[in-house]
Specification:
Bound molecules: NADP nicotinamide-adenine-dinucleotide phosphate
Structural class: alpha/beta
Strand order of the largest sheet: 3-2-1-4-5-6-7
Helix content: 40-55%
Number of strands: 7
Strand content: 5-15%
Shape: globular
Largest sheet: 7 strands, parallel
Distance between the termini: 37 Å
C-alpha cells in the first residue's frame, strides 16, 4: 500500500487530501504541530499514524524526529500546511516575516531534507526504480506578488524555487516533484484572509478544498512514465 506523509491534514485542503487517500486504503503519516494536535488528527482521520513536529520551528524538526519512530519508506511527501499574515512592506515586522518564512518555506525545505532518504529508497515491482513524489502546495501568490501579500508571496516564491531546484537535483534518480498553485479556496485560511482584508467571507464564492485535493491526486496518480511539474487551479466561477 502506498504511504504518504502529509502536513496540514487538520484543516482545509490538507484534510480533504487525507480523507481521500484514507478512503482508498493508502497509509498516512500526519504531521502535527504538537502532541495534543496529534491526538486530534488521529481522531479526525482514523487509521492514520501521526508524527509530531512544529513547522513554525524548523531548527527543531531534526531533533523532534530523532525522538519518534519514522516511516521506513515513503511514496509521497505532501507539503500542504501553510500560514498567512497580510501586511504592507512598510508595516510587516521581522516576527511576521519569520512566522511565514518558517512555516511556508524553511520547514518544507527541512522536512524534505530529512525525508529524502525514505523517498529515494522505494523499489518498484519492475526493474525500473520506483521512487517517491514530493508535492508542494504553493499559491497564486507564488507566481505574482500583490500589495499587502509581500511576506506570504516571498515565502511562496521561495517555495517555487525550492521545488524547481529539488526537481533538477532528484529527477535523474526518479523522485518526482510537483508544485500546485491554487487560487482562493474556501478554508479557515481564506476566512482569516477575508478578516484581514476587512471583507465579508462567503465560502460559496471560492473553490472547494475537495477540488484542490482532486488536483493533487491527479499529479500523484499520474503513471510513472510522466511527471506534472506545475499545476495552476483557479476558482471556476
Ligand atoms: N485557502 C486558500 O485560499 C489558499 C490559496 C492558495 C494556496 N493555499 C495554500 O494551501 C495550503 C493549505 O491551506 P488551507 O487553506 O487548507 O489552510 P488552513 O485551513 O489554514 O490549514 C493550514 C494547515 O497548516 C497547518 N499548520 C500551520 N502552521 C503549522 C505549524 N507550525 N506546524 C504544523 N502544522 C501547521 C495547520 O495546522 P493546525 O490545524 O494545527 O493549525 C492546518 O492544518 C497552504 O499552504 C496555503 O498557503 C491556500
Amino acid at each position: 500500500m502506498p504511504t504518504h506523509l502529509i502536513t496540514g491534514a487538520g484543516s482545509g485542503i490538507g484534510a480533504a487530501v487525507a480523507r481521500r487517500l484514507l478512503e482508498r486504503g493508502d497509509e498516512l503519516v500526519l504531521l502535527a504541530r504538537d502532541a495534543g494536535r496529534a491526538k486530534e488528527l488521529a481522531a479526525l482521520h482514523p487509521g492514520a499514524r501521526t508524527l509530531v513536529g512544529d513547522l513554525g520551528n524548523p531548527d527543531r524538526l531534526s531533533w523532534a524526529f530523532g525522538q519518534q519512530p519514522m516511516p521506513e519508506r515513503l511514496d509521497s511527501l505532501l507539503h500542504v500546511a501553510g500560514v498567512v499574515e497580510l501586511g504592507r512592506i512598510g508595516e510587516l515586522t521581522p516576527k511576521s516575516w519569520h512566522f511565514q518564512l518558517n512555516a511556508n518555506l524553511i520547514a518544507p525545505a527541512e522536512l524534505t531534507r530529512l525525508l529524502l532518504p525514505q523517498l529515494r529508497g522505494n523499489q518498484g515491482p519492475q526493474l525500473r526504480v520506483n521512487q517517491g513524489h514530493v508535492v508542494f502546495v504553493n499559491s497564486g501568490a507564488g507566481l505574482a506578488a500583490n500589495a499587502e501579500w509581500g511576506a506570504y508571496a516571498a515565502s511562496k516564491h521561495g517555495l517555487k524555487a525550492l521545488a524547481d531546484s529539488l526537481r533538477h537535483e532528484e529527477h535523474a534518480g526518479g523522485v518526482r516533484v510537483t508544485s500546485v498553485y491554487p487560487g482562493r479556496t474556501a478554508s479557515p485560511m481564506q476566512a482569516k484572509v477575508h478578516q484581514q482584508e476587512g471583507k465579508e467571507y462567503d465560502p460559496s464564492r471560492w473553490m472547494d478544498p475537495e477540488s484542490v485535493a482532486t488536483t493533487i491526486l491527479l499529479a500523484l496518480d499520474l503513471p510513472r512514465d510522466a511527471e506534472i511539474n506545475d499545476l495552476t487551479v483557479r476558482p471556476g466561477r
